[in-house]
Amino acid sequence: MPSKPRATEPYEMATPTDNSAGITLATPLDEATAQRISKKQWSGLEALGIATVGDLISHYPRRYEDRREFGVMPTGPSEVAVCLKMEVVDTRVRRLGGKRTIFEAVVDQPDGGSALGGTLVLRWFNLPFMSKVLAVGHELVVYGKTKQSGQRLVMDHPDIEIIDPDDPVAARIHLDRITPVYPLASGINQRRMRTLMFEILEQITDDVLPDLLVPTPDWAKALKIWRARALRQVHFPDTDESLLESRRYLALEEFVALQLNVLQRRAEYEKKGGVARPSEGFLLKDLLNSLPFQLTGAQLRCVDEIRSDLISNRPMNRLLQGDVGSGKTLVALSGMLLAVEAGYQAALMAPTQILAEQHFLGIQRLLEPLDIRVSLRTGSKHEDGFLPLMAGGEPQIIIGTHALIHDKVEFENLGFVVIDEQHKFGVSQRSKLIAQGHVPDVLVMTATPIPRTLTLSIYGDLDVSIIDELPAGRGKIVTGIRGIDKTEKAAAFIRDQLEENRQAYIVYPLIEESEKVKSLAASVEFDKWNKRFEHFECGLIHGRMPPLEKEQVMKDFRDGKLDVLVATTVIEVGVDVPNANVMLIYNAERFGLAQLHQLRGRIGRGEHKSYCVLMVDPKNSEAMEKLRVMEETTDGFKIADADLRMRGPGEVLGTAQSGLPDLKLGDLVTDTDLVKEAREIAAEILRNDPQLKQPNHQTLAARFGGGRAGGQLS
Ligand code: ADP
Ligand code: MG
What ranges make up the beta strands (E) of 463-596? Predict the structure, then answer.
């Protein structure tokens, strides 16, 4: 990009030294600004959660535009957004029929037109009021991506800002600099937000923005900037470097605040004193001897880690991470047996009824020879009186769904709690179950493997055990992406596998639809598959079937009475039928990678080679690209990492994951070095000031609700 000589130096923000106005972070915004804030603007600010000076300055830009030098107008489609200075030369509204309209503004580079002679057309669909906003002669800052539309180069719904030539001073807040672009709400526009921000930052003195991180010599090097400067620079950076430094400083501060909370919570439950639950491990030995296979080294290591937690009188708070099929259930069961032998009850809570039942059946079968009383509590079973009364006393192992907390299950002596697929539960559900015991040892399990730095941020108060090895003898899973127009071909392939006595899943995961619509879609498709495979037995399973019916279908599939299972995502988690080796997933493009990985984890559980076919709209090449990583790897860590980068942790880890901190600047996925640094800094702060008595530490910890009494996993 050719660089033009700069007309003016950036308008430097004054750093005031006189705070005679007495402005603090708590000062209401209207008392701190000389400009009137209209009612409409207030409502916009309110929607953004901004009422005080402090609220405003922690409303960070969502991006920046480098308006020191504008780009040259592209002559073709642009890969990344460009920032241009343009002049409106023509406008028109075109009607498309009905109420649909396009407003078009033809723009050209100012000062004599673009060197290359072309013009650019800005388009807004169905926003007729744009014709009142833009007029010929307006000078604009335009931000967006160009694309080709017929002979014309267009930009659809660009961000624009009209330059006001009558206000040269204010203009220099908006131009000739790295310009912040803020998240907005209806009522307040970009220029207003920016001038307000600028004015406030010019009002407050540095002493209102003291450093919260008071560096010790060990980590002073991490901070190249101090807080007051970082806050000014993050809004109105002088240079690219100072922007980077300030963002880094503020993100680090945020991560330290988070880690202070996490570490404090951990210190609190460690202090609380748990119960030592020692055992010889006889039951465990019996179980392991009865298995037709050996535990993997990774499983054994995890069992050992759980065992030392049980023996010690420190309460266990442990996360068990392992890819799908890594054998988490057996590790959990081992822990439960150790607790039972020590004289305690153990409970396992699973997110779905199908899964709870499967755990129950499997565990009951394994424990039969050991003479251990296992019971199942799911809402329906309980009501139906299906549950046989246990002869010989209270159950020692109780397996269930949410019914474990809602149905007033009475535990005699609950000492060990396992939560399977924990991301499907909310924090309060977990703590309710935990509260049923007297400081029980807690194991939470997750099949979405996440990078260590993310674990530190979300589960930093837990100890972590990782099963990083799959049992030997698993068949390979081959994954392919196909267009939905290839359904008949896929059916032929499945037929071949069925002839070999294998079983298949056909999944219709219409995520956005209601359970009702989902179930309906699966039913309609079921009829078609039934016809396609008339010589085989097909079953249907979806969320709206009565529980007993669902269970029967699942049982028939497990027992091999059904060859094909047409399903919604009810089978997503945990289902374990090793003979099933084919899975067809429709609408695959509408899923996150982590979820597809979970679904795919239903196959590849036996010795046979398995096949996963992702059926997508063949016209949607972007979707096909996104799914490519599924073809390339079956490593859950790699897939989760790709997914986290694409969709962010909130989406990947699920909405029930209310443990996700609300970070303003820090990025849980990409800021890995900052997370590690913050962990060390927070640990050091707590070593020197364990009660967080210093005001700056209190302020930091309060940012994530710190200071409150923590509990296990609360
Ligand atoms: P996940 O970690 O996905 O919850 P499961 O606990 O359901 O996995 O285990 C998957 C399957 O692997 C089960 O059928 C289980 O019996 C089997 N399995 C577990 N551990 C081993 C092992 N060490 N060797 C062979 N098979 C195992
Ligand atoms: Mg499982």
Answer: 463-467, 477-483, 503-507, 538-541, 564-567, 580-585
Residue 420 to residues 347, 570, 592, Cα–Cα distance (Å)? 11, 15, 20
Counting ligands in written order, the one closest to the CA of 355 is 2
Which of the ligands is closest to the CA of residue 474?
1
8-state DSSP, 52: B
Q: How far is the CA of 405 from the centre of ligand 2 (A)?
A: 20
User: What pLDDT, on a 0 to 100 scale, did the predictor assign at position 9?
Assistant: 52
- Check pocket membership of 298 for ligand 1, CB cut-off 6 A: no
CB distance 250 to ligand 1 below 6 Å: no
Q: State which H helix or E strand residue 92 sits in.
A: strand 82-95
| Per-residue pLDDT at 184 | 95
Q: How many CB atoms lie within 10 A of CB 514?
A: 11
Contact by Cβ (8 Å): 230, 246: yes
Q: Which of 345, 343, 348 is nearest to 361 (CA)?
A: 348
- Cβ-in-10-Å burial (0-12, 13-18, 19+) of 708 comes to middle
* Cα 452 to middle of ligand 1, angstroms: 23
- Of all ligands present, the nearest one to the C-alpha of 332 is 1
For residue 197, give both structure tokens. Answer: 């921000």
Which atom of ligand 1 is least distant from the CA of 329? 6
CA dist 167 → 138, 163, 173 (Å): 14, 9, 10
Name 300's Cβ contacts closer than 8 Å, sequence gap at least 6: none
Q: Whose CA is nearest to atom 15 of ligand 1?
A: 327
| Probe target for ligand 1 pocket from 289, 321, 329, 599, with the most ligand atoms within 8 Å of CB | 329
3-state SS, residue 113: coil
Look at residues 554, 681, 701, 669 and name the one whose alpha carbon lies nearest to residue 252.
Answer: 681
d(CA 275, CA 700) in angstroms, rounded, equals 33
pLDDT along the chain (714 residues), means of 10: 44 72 90 91 96 95 91 86 92 87 90 63 91 92 92 92 77 86 94 93 88 67 77 94 92 93 85 88 95 95 96 92 90 97 95 86 90 84 42 80 80 92 77 86 88 83 90 89 92 95 88 59 85 93 82 89 89 78 91 87 90 91 87 90 86 66 86 90 91 90 61 34
> How many Å lie between the centroid of ligand 1 and the Cα of residue 334?
13
Identify the nearest ligand to the CA of 467 by its number: 1
Q: How far is the CA of 176 from the centre of ligand 2 (A)?
A: 57
Contacts of 438 (CB under 8 A, 6+ apart): 275, 414, 415
Question: Given this model, what pLDDT does residue 449 score?
Answer: 81
The protein residues having their C-beta less than 5 angstroms from ligand 2 (an ion) are 574
Q: Is 321 in the pocket of ligand 1 (CB under 6 A)?
A: no
C-alpha of residue 574 to centroid of ligand 2, in Å: 4
How many Cα atoms sit within 13 Å of 588 on the Cβ side? 36
Long-range contacts from 166-173, C-beta under 8 angstroms, 24+ separation: 169/11, 170/195, 172/8, 172/10, 172/11, 173/11, 173/198, 173/236
* 322 Cβ inside 6 Å of ligand 1: yes
